[in-house]
């Protein structure tokens, strides 16, 4: 008995809330990636000693506020950092653990 090929529906069944949440999840993933990169760059600059104490304080405060805002946005859409961590297959995951 030969099996008939599965037909792909011409239209995806989605609801507006699901689409909004998935789009927001993607945007938050990008923001989290940039936040982690900024944090690593800031730490590197602190380690190199090319920042004043005032600049270090400003960086720390800015990164702390960004992290707090991310936590609030994730809570609003019931997301965790693990939800934002896209699996890239053999390359591993997108975000640092």
Q: How many helix segments?
A: 3
Helix content: 55-70%
The SS-based structural class is: mainly alpha
The averaged pLDDT comes out at 85
Largest sheet: none
The amount of beta strand, in percent, is under 5%
Number of strands: 0
Distance between the termini: 49 Å
Quaternary form: single chain
* Helix and strand run: HHH
Indicate the overall shape: elongated
Task: List low-pLDDT spans.
Answer: none
Radius of gyration: 20 Å
SSE arrangement:
Elements: H1 16-48, H2 53-76, H3 81-84
Helix pairs in contact: 1-2
Subcellular location: Gas vesicle
InterPro entries: GvpK
Keywords: Gas vesicle
Structure characteristics:
97 residues; mainly alpha; 3 helices; 63% helix
Walkthrough of the structure:
This protein has 97 residues and is mostly helical. Helices cover 63% and strands 0% of the residues. Helix 1 (16-48) packs antiparallel against helix 2. The longest helix has 33 residues, at 16-48. Keywords: Gas vesicle. Belongs to the gas vesicle GvpK family. InterPro entries: GvpK. It is found in: Gas vesicle. It comes from Nocardioides astragali.
């Amino acid at each position: 008995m030969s099996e008939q090929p599965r037909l792909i529906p011409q239209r995806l069944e989605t609801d507006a809330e699901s689409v909004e949440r998935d789009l927001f999840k993607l945007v938050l993933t990008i923001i989290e990636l940039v936040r982690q990169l900024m944090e690593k760059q800031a730490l590197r600059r602190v380690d190199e000693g090319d920042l004043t104490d005032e600049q270090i304080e400003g960086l720390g405060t800015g990164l702390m506020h960004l992290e707090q805002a991310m936590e609030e946005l994730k809570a609003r859409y019931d997301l965790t950092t693990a939800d934002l961590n896209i699996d890239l297959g053999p390359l591993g995951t997108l975000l640092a653990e």
